[in-house]
Specification:
The protein is of the alpha+beta class. It is built from eleven helices and six strands. The protein starts with 6 loop residues before the first helix and ends in a 6-residue tail after the last helix.
C-alpha cells in the first residue's frame, strides 16, 4: 500500500535528525558576513608522501638545524687547537736623573719579543682531541636525524590512523542514521517501542562522539607533523602514503651486527672514548714544561747609562718541582673510564632495543595477519546479516546493536594493530639505524 507520508511526520523526522546532530538552521549570510568570508585567506594545501615529508624534514626541521650548529662549533675548536701561541712584545725603560742626566741623555729603552714554544707534542695532541670532537659532533648530528626521522614517521602515520578512525566512525554513523530515520517513522506509526528508538539514537550519538574524537586526534597529529616539518598552521597537509600492510621479514642476526657497526650514537661513544685517550696524552705532555725564548735590543741615549745599542737574549723554563699536572692526569684517566662505561652501556642498550623491537614486530605482524585472515569480513558480514534480519523483524534491536558494537570493535582493533605493526617496524629501523626493506 503506497501512502505518502504526512508532511508533519517528515518535518518531525527532520527535526529529530537536526536535534541529534546539534545542527543549527543556516540563515542567509549578511553582506558583512559575505565580505568577511571573502577576505579570509584560503589555506595552502601541500601533498606529501612519506619520503617527501622526510625530505622536507631534513631541510627545515628546527631541532636538526640547531644540532647542525654543533658541527660548526666543533670545527671552530679544531681551528683553535692548531693555532700557535701569540708572541709577546714587552718594552722596558731605564732613566737616570743625576749629574745633569735626563731621559733623553741617559735613558734606555729595551723592546723585547718573547715566544712560547710548546714541548712534548702538546699541539699535536690538542689537534687530535679536537679532531675526534668534530667527528663526534657529526655522529651526534646523524643520531639526531635517526631519532627525529622516527618521530616524523610516527607523526605521519598518526595522522593516517586518525583518518582511518574517522572514516570508520562516519561509516557507522551514516549506517545508523539511515536506521534511525526509518525507525523514527516506524515509531510514529506504532511499529516499534520508544525504548528501541532511544537506543538507536544513543548509538548514533556515540558514533558522532567518535567522529569528533578522531577529528581532534587528527588535528593534533597534523600540528605535530607541521612543527617537525617547519610549516605554519596555514598549510593544510594532505598525506598520500596510506596506512597499509607490507610484509617484512628481517634477518635479526644481520640487524644486530649492523646496529653495532653503524648506529651513529655507538660511533659517537667510540669517538668520545678516543678523544678522552687523546686528552690523557695531552695531560701527560703537560708534565714537560714549555720554553719561552725572547730577543731584544737596548736603545740608549747619547750618555749611557751603559754601553749603547746592546742586544739581549732570554730563555725561560718553568721548573716542575711541585706542579706536574697530577690532577689533570687523574681527571683524564677517570674520563676514559667514564667513556668506556658509557660505551658499554650504549652497546647493551642497542642490543636490547633491536631485540625488543624485533619481537614486537613479529607479534604485531602475527596479529595483523590474523585479522586479515577473514575476521574483518566476518564482522562486516555479520552486521549486514543482522541489519537485514532486523528490517524483516527477524532480529531485535539488541541483536543489531550488539552486532554493530562487535563489528566496530573488530575494525577499530584492526586499525590499531595495523598502526602498531607499522610503528614497530619504524622502531626496529630506529634501533638498527637503517631502513629495512620489505
Amino acid at each position: 500500500m503506497n501512502k505518502k507520508l504526512p508532511i508533519h511526520l517528515l518535518m518531525v523526522g527532520a527535526a529529530v535528525l537536526a536535534g541529534l546532530w546539534g545542527a543549527e538552521f543556516a540563515w542567509p549570510a549578511t553582506a558583512v558576513e559575505k565580505a568577511s568570508m571573502a577576505q579570509k585567506p584560503s589555506p595552502i594545501a601541500m601533498r606529501l608522501s612519506q619520503d617527501e615529508a622526510i625530505a622536507l624534514f631534513l631541510r627545515q626541521n628546527f631541532d636538526l638545524l640547531i644540532t647542525k650548529f654543533g658541527i660548526d662549533h666543533a670545527k671552530g675548536q679544531q681551528i683553535t687547537a692548531r693555532l700557535f701561541p701569540n708572541p709577546v712584545l714587552s718594552v722596558s725603560t731605564l732613566s737616570a736623573y743625576t749629574q745633569g742626566c735626563n731621559a733623553n741623555k741617559c735613558g734606555a729603552v729595551f723592546p723585547q719579543i718573547q715566544q712560547l714554544f710548546e714541548m712534548a707534542g702538546k699541539r699535536g695532541y690538542r689537534m687530535e682531541s679536537a679532531g675526534f670532537g668534530a667527528r663526534s659532533a657529526e655522529a651526534s648530528f646523524e643520531d639526531a636525524i635517526r631519532q627525529l626521522t622516527f618521530t616524523v614517521k610516527d607523526a605521519y602515520y598518526r595522522v593516517q590512523l586518525a583518518q582511518r578512525r574517522l572514516a570508520l566512525a562516519e561509516e557507522n554513523r551514516d549506517r545508523f542514521s539511515r536506521i534511525l530515520e526509518v525507525n523514527t517513522i516506524r515509531f510514529k506509526k506504532g511499529y516499534i517501542a520508544e525504548v528501541d528508538l532511544i537506543r538507536i539514537r544513543l548509538q548514533v550519538v556515540d558514533f558522532q562522539s567518535q567522529i569528533i574524537q578522531a577529528i581532534q586526534d587528527g588535528n593534533q597529529a597534523r600540528a605535530d607533523l607541521r612543527v617537525l616539518l617547519g610549516l605554519s598552521p596555514s598549510v593544510e597537509v594532505l598525506l598520500t602514503t596510506e596506512l597499509d600492510y607490507h610484509l617484512v621479514e628481517p634477518d635479526i642476526v644481520a640487524l644486530r651486527r649492523l646496529a653495532l657497526d653503524t648506529r651513529p650514537d655507538i660511533r659517537m661513544k667510540r669517538l668520545t672514548q678516543s678523544q678522552r685517550m687523546a686528552d690523557l696524552r695531552l695531560a701527560k705532555a703537560y708534565r714537560i714544561p714549555d720554553i719561552t725564548a725572547g730577543a731584544g735590543i737596548s736603545l740608549q741615549g747619547p750618555q749611557g747609562p751603559d754601553n749603547q745599542q746592546q742586544v739581549g737574549l732570554s730563555l725561560g723554563v718553568p721548573l716542575p718541582l711541585f706542579n706536574r699536572n697530577q690532577g689533570g692526569i687523574a681527571q683524564a684517566e677517570v674520563s676514559i673510564q667514564v667513556a668506556e662505561t658509557d660505551l658499554q652501556k650504549a652497546v647493551v642498550q642497542v642490543e636490547n632495543d633491536v631485540e625488543i623491537a624485533y619481537r614486537n614486530l613479529l607479534e604485531s605482524r602475527r596479529l595483523v595477519e590474523t585479522y586479515r585472515g577473514g575476521v574483518l569480513e566476518d564482522a562486516r558480514l555479520t552486521l549486514t546479516i543482522v541489519e537485514k534480519a532486523y528490517e524483516r523483524g527477524g532480529a531485535t534491536i539488541i541483536d543489531l546493536l550488539d552486532a554493530a558494537r562487535t563489528s566496530r570493535t573488530i575494525q577499530q582493533n584492526y586499525i590499531e594493530t595495523l598502526f602498531n605493526y607499522q610503528r614497530n617496524l619504524f622502531l626496529l629501523e630506529n634501533a638498527v639505524g637503517r631502513e629495512i626493506s620489505s
